[in-house]
Design brief:
Number of domains of chain A: 1
Number of strands of chain A: 9
Oligomer: heterotrimer
CATH topology of chain A: Rossmann fold
Radius of gyration of chain C: 26 Å
Structural class of chain A: alpha/beta
Order of helices and strands of chain C: HHHHHHHHHHHHHHHHHHHHHHHHH
Order of helices and strands of chain A: EEEHEEEHHHEHEHE
Number of helices of chain C: 25
CATH class of the largest domain in chain C: Mainly Alpha
CATH topology of the largest domain in chain C: MetI-like fold
Chains: A alpha/beta, B alpha+beta, C mainly alpha
Number of domains of chain C: 2
Radius of gyration of chain A: 18 Å
Strand order of the largest sheet of chain A: 6-7-8-3-9
Helix content of chain A: 25-40%
Helix content of chain C: over 70%
Distance between the termini of chain C: 32 Å
Largest sheet of chain C: none
Structural class of chain C: mainly alpha
CATH architecture of the largest domain in chain C: Orthogonal Bundle
Strand content of chain C: under 5%
Strand content of chain A: 25-35%
Largest sheet of chain A: 5 strands, parallel
Distance between the termini of chain A: 38 Å
Shape of chain C: globular
């Protein structure tokens, strides 16, 4: 089944005024870039996609994920992963803990049943792949910004999301780190064939994404 | 000075004595009798030989009136001035029972037929102890009549190790029979007489008692008891005693305190105190010592329906010696103080 | 504090500076000196009375009482204590009521937070429950007592049509021997407190924002809302709740007002018994009472240790569960249960308050009528004629202790900023000290010390003792607001030449007008509700609304005690209304200041 994220006829209103309208389909592995100045509704779009539109905002339209309408599902049932500007790693868990937290439950019935040892191994492998080998037991607050961003990425990916949203995820990293992290994230998105939407105000991000770019105007 | 009971005043004076405060005490006058008086007297906490020198003391006819010279059998030695008298009277809710008991024996039958509708305050509460003392005296009167002895007389003498068990045995037997028919099966007791009165208003109890008969109509006027309440005295006897005011040895203002005590014994103050609207507490003055004008102050014209009818107290019962209080309390605590 | 001695010396001005540019020493101004001494003063103020009180209970416990001419150390007191009939029951009752009520309040708090974390209901529940916080324990106990009595609101609502009761039935509540009534009363009072402390922690900008975002992350990862709260938010939030919970536990296990009004007397809780011994006419019981106070101390200490130990145990046990990836534990069911329980709790509280209100204006109100037969103002009128002195005392003591507490707190918080070091954890712990040590254990000793020092002005002694209990709450209330002040304002003012005192008075304080008013209202509320401190430190000479209310609670008139309970509740409410209204007219900030 081809994975896809579809925004059908979205009209987003802030306090009764139309903020933006969108009708797009993103295939797995593709990245849709949304750009625009502050206040143009970029974050509100992501909020709507994850199901947490704040007060003062209303919207019409539907979200379809892999040909299923998820518009009426609450956040925790949508399986849409989000990467934020801040890594937001849980400070009461270690690096491995953060990632383990995200992994699906070792369910005896699922095809993916992993026992504790296998989960640990999977986490170790993942950390190696992004250049963080041996950091399982480190405390998240002791990592650098770039390292935190990579752990956050792993956390999101290993939760087996069906789509992924990026909310200006590289804006807090300095230039070289930004380039490296961005490359890593996009690579993973393509490998896992996840439909992705990225919100940013950096043109180089949009170029690297190599996908459709939409500009929101005020 | 607001205290919730006199024992707090005793604590205060003791604390002051141990802090060597011998003439700037915070308490100038205490309302007192019975065990509290005995304790303070034993510990030399009271001013001596002042009450018998007050002008109004003569109006209590001290020569012929042991009630004002002895406090529960203990001589006052001029350490306390009499203020009022009290007798144990009962009251009941006429809407929930129409035949209240009039003797101790009838009481037992009544509670058996109306379980959970009567109780008494937990010792060492004064009112609760009074009920127990009343019961003890009555039990011995009835018993003495049957077996031809006079054990009751021993109640007027100090309790001793030898006679305590024997004298108190009938009381425990009586209570063992009574408790299962009481409120909450006698496993819990109200803390004070005031609480008991409130339970009557709540309709949890149908029968209760008090040492201050005027408090019943006063409560009805304040809506704290229903209009269906009626007061009466037991026909086999009502326990009676006198209450006093005393001055701590270290009072800051002893002269002023004595002036107050004298005023309290004046006919005007005593008459006002006896007015049901004010307190209704019985006077310690002997009316025959007063002139006709003063006597007129004491007449009451419109009795309240729930008030104790005039002259209800046909027979008074004297308080036993104070040492029996401790004895009863110890025994009670051991047998019933902790619910099983 | 030592860092500052580089910049400040307390010697005379020296005018020459050397070529290497050593900072010219200058004379620190009075304000700064006072401020830098404040934290030490605070510590001494809290530690000395409590420790002093404990020592003065320790000595009599070992039979050293000069007033009774006993100066040999012996264990007679403890021996007598062991012999007390029902001692095990007393201890068990204290432990059960303390532990169960704290657990219940804690669990309910967590459930409410979890179920309503990202919903508007949390805010609404907060507003509904905050007034309960300032109701003194005595008033709450009175209200609860009315509700659960056999002739209380619950029974009346179902009689006689459902229950067939014409007279009040044989009931168990209040004063039941298992302490259920006490647990009910305590839980209802502690639940809003814990909830509001948690919300207060969440209101801190960095922490709150971070936790809410991490909650969102957990939701995105597929965790159901309640599970997300327990696995992602609670582990980080809990440390902020620890001290309030321990304070609740300490109070619940050693409280006197609640068991006096709602508890059994065959036997009562340990704290109540100790109080009765201390107040007994027989002065030799003092020794037993002091031994009992030590026992109470051990009891509360063990409960605290038990709680802390359980924390560790739970942490270890559930470590695996945190990471097992399970996203959902019948969340929908728990959501419904929590919603139902919250409604029950709020309904309970409302019913209790309505009952209280009705009793205060009731004429004859025979069971099983749901409404009184007449409504009269008599009770309020007669109460007011007797209330002037207690009311005056209540208000003046409240003002004195609160003002002092506020000033001291502000100075200490200012010291924290001037020295640029946060107050040590030791200080933060000591601030909680009067709340953690059972009052019954140290108050008697403290009162004895006060008697030695100053016998005549009971007012001062009472105000001082109240200060000990007001200070922690005032401090907690002001600390977060003070620490959130933008330091840039102070820097700008200083660069314009303003002295620290000027900065404090003209820049910082006006910004803090609203939080200061709230802290004042809170301090007043705490002082208004104190029972044991007023009773003991004042030697019974100082009557406040609360002491009157407790005395009347088990007295003869529900109506009068209802009136006093209502006054008890109304007083703090006035304070909070002022705290809410005044900032709208004075020192208005341009934007809406919402937390």
């Amino acid at each position: 089944m081809q994975s896809s994220l579809q925004i059908k006829d979205l009209q987003l209103y802030r306090q009764g005024e139309l903020l933006l309208s969108l009708d797009e389909q993103i295939a797995g592995g593709e990245i849709l870039t949304i750009m625009g100045p502050s206040g143009s509704g970029k974050s509100s779009l992501l909020n709507w996609l994850t199901g947490i539109l704040p007060n003062g905002f209303t919207a019409t339209g539907e979200v379809w994920l892999n040909d299923k309408n998820v518009s009426h599902l609450p956040t925790h049932l949508r399986h849409i992963g989000v990467l934020y500007q801040d890594a937001l790693l849980f400070s009461h868990l270690s690096v491995a803990g953060n990632i383990a937290f995200a992994m699906p439950q070792d369910n005896k019935n699922s095809a993916e049943k992993l026992n504790k040892k296998q989960r640990r191994e999977k986490i170790e492998q993942a950390l190696e792949q992004v250049g963080l080998a041996g950091m399982e037991n480190r405390h998240p607050d002791n990592l650098s910004g770039g390292q935190q961003a990579r752990v956050a990425l792993l956390r999101t990916l290993l939760s087996a999301p069906k789509a992924i949203l990026l909310d200006e995820p590289f804006s807090k990293l300095d230039t070289q780190l930004r380039v490296d992290t961005r490359q890593l994230v996009f690579e993973q998105i393509r490998t896992h064939k996840l439909p992705a939407i990225m919100v940013t105000h950096d043109y180089s991000d949009a170029e690297a994404a190599k996908g459709k770019v939409i500009h929101l105007d005020l | 000075m607001k205290l919730s009971d006199t024992s707090e005043a005793v604590s205060r004076v003791l604390a002051e004595k141990s802090a060597n405060n011998n003439d700037k005490g915070s308490v100038d006058l205490i309302w007192i009798n019975g065990a509290n008086f005995a304790t303070m007297s034993e510990n030399s906490l009271l001013l001596k030989q002042w009450a018998n020198k007050l002008p109004n003391f003569a109006l209590t006819d001290p020569e012929n009136n042991p009630a004002v010279n002895f406090d529960f059998g203990v001589p006052t030695n001029g350490m306390e001035a009499p203020w009022g008298q009290a007798a144990l009277t009962f009251y009941y809710d006429s809407l929930s029972t129409d035949k209240p008991p009039t003797t101790l024996n009838e009481l037992v039958n009544w509670t058996a037929q109306n379980p959970g509708r009567f109780s008494y305050p937990k010792p060492p509460d004064f009112l609760g102890m009074s009920f127990l003392k009343y019961a003890l005296v009555m039990l011995h009167e009835n018993q003495d009549a049957k077996i031809g002895k006079n054990i009751k007389a021993q109640l007027n003498l100090p309790a001793t190790e030898q006679n305590t068990d024997m004298v108190l045995a009938p009381l425990w037997a009586f209570l063992d029979d009574l408790h299962p028919t009481l409120w909450r099966k006698g496993e819990q007791f109200v803390q004070t007489g005031a609480h008991m009165r409130r339970l009557v208003d709540d309709t949890e109890l149908s029968l209760a008692f008090t040492f201050s008969a005027p408090e019943v109509p006063a409560a009805v006027q304040r809506y704290d008891l229903p209009e269906s309440i009626r007061s009466y005295a037991m026909s086999d006897g009502s326990l009676s005693n006198t209450h006093f005011v005393a001055i701590p040895y270290n009072a800051s203002h002893p002269q002023a305190a004595q002036l107050v005590a004298n005023f309290l014994m004046s006919p005007e103050a005593q008459a006002k105190k006896q007015t049901p609207d004010i307190w209704g507490d019985k006077t310690v003055l002997v009316l025959s010592t007063l002139n006709p004008e003063q006597q007129a102050l004491f007449k009451d014209n419109k009795p309240h329906p729930s008030a104790l009818p005039f002259d209800s107290i046909k027979r008074t019962v004297n308080e036993p010696h104070p040492s029996w209080v401790d004895a009863i309390m110890q025994g009670w605590q051991t047998r019933y103080g902790v619910s099983p | 504090m030592s860092k500052n001695t580089n910049n400040k010396t307390t010697k005379e001005k020296v005018h020459s500076a050397t070529i290497t540019g050593i900072t010219a020493p200058y004379k620190t101004d009075l304000f700064t000196r006072i401020v830098s001494l404040s934290p030490t003063f605070l510590l001494l103020l809290l530690i000395l009375p409590v420790l002093g009180g404990l020592v003065c209970v320790l000595l009599p416990a070992f039979s050293w009482v000069t007033a009774l001419e006993q100066t040999t150390v012996s264990l007679q007191g403890f021996h007598d204590l062991w012999q007390t009939p029902g001692l095990t029951q007393m201890v068990a009752l204290s432990i059960a009521t303390g532990l169960l009520s704290t657990l219940l309040a804690f669990v309910m708090t967590l459930m409410i937070l979890a179920a309503f974390f990202n919903s508007v209901w949390l805010n609404r529940i907060e507003h509904l429950l905050s007034p309960i916080l300032v109701i003194p324990h005595a008033a709450a106990a009175i209200a609860v007592g009315f509700l659960i009595a056999p002739s209380g609101m619950f029974s009346r609502l179902i009689s006689p049509w459902l229950s067939g009761w014409e007279l009040a039935p044989d009931g168990m509540f209040p004063h039941d021997p298992y302490g259920i009534s006490i647990i009910l009363g305590l839980t209802l009072k502690e639940l809003p407190f814990l909830l509001l402390m948690a919300l207060g922690a969440l209101a801190q900008p960095e922490l709150g924002k971070k936790l809410r975002q991490q909650y969102k992350v957990a939701l995105n990862l597929g965790y159901y809302p309640i599970t997300a709260f327990f696995k992602a938010v609670l582990p980080v939030l809990y440390p902020f709740l620890r001290l309030p919970i321990l304070a609740v536990l300490a109070y619940a296990s050693a409280s006197v007002e609640m068991p006096l009004i709602l508890g059994p007397n065959t036997p009562p809780t340990l704290a109540v018994t100790i109080m009765q011994w201390f107040n007994d006419v027989d002065l030799n019981l003092r020794i037993k009472a002091s031994a009992g106070a030590l026992l109470q101390l051990a009891l509360t200490g063990s409960l605290i240790a038990l709680w802390l130990g359980s924390e560790r145990a739970i942490k270890t046990c559930f470590n695996g569960t945190l990471l097992n990836g399970k996203r959902h534990y019948a969340d929908a069911l728990w959501q419904k249960i929590t919603a139902a329980l919250t409604t029950v709790v709020i309904g309970f509280i409302l019913l209790a308050l309505i009952g209280l209100l009705m009793w205060s204006v009731a004429g004859f109100w025979r069971f099983p009528a749901v409404l009184p037969e007449q409504l009269v103002l008599l009770h309020f009128q007669s109460a007011f004629t007797q209330m002037s002195t207690p009311l005056f005392n209540t208000i003046t003591i409240g003002i004195v202790s609160t003002v002092f507490a506020i000033v001291l707190t502000l100075l200490c918080l200012e010291a924290e900023q001037l020295s640029q070091k946060p107050l040590s954890t030791f200080t933060s712990l000591i601030i909680y000290l009067p709340l953690l040590v059972p009052s019954i254990a140290f108050l008697f000793g403290l009162v004895w010390l006060q008697q030695l020092v100053n016998n005549q002005t009971a007012f001062f002694n009472v105000a001082f003792t109240h200060l000990l209990f007001v200070l922690p709450y005032v401090f907690l209330s002001l600390a977060s607001s003070y620490r959130r002040l933008d330091p840039h304002f102070a820097h700008v003012a200083a660069s314009l030449g303003a002295t620290p005192a000027k900065v404090f008075l003209q820049v910082k304080l006006p910004q803090l007008f609203a939080p200061i008013l709230i802290a004042i209202a809170l301090g007043l509320a705490i002082s208004f509700g104190q029972y044991l401190p007023t009773l003991l430190a004042g030697g019974g000479r100082i009557a406040t609304i609360t002491t009157e209310a407790v005395t009347l609670a088990n007295g003869a008139s529900r109506r009068t005690s209802a009136v006093y309970a209502i006054i008890q509740m109304a007083l703090p409410l006035v304070g909070f209304i002022l705290a809410w209204v005044l900032p709208k007219y004075f020192f208005k900030s341009g934007k809406n200041s919402s937390r």
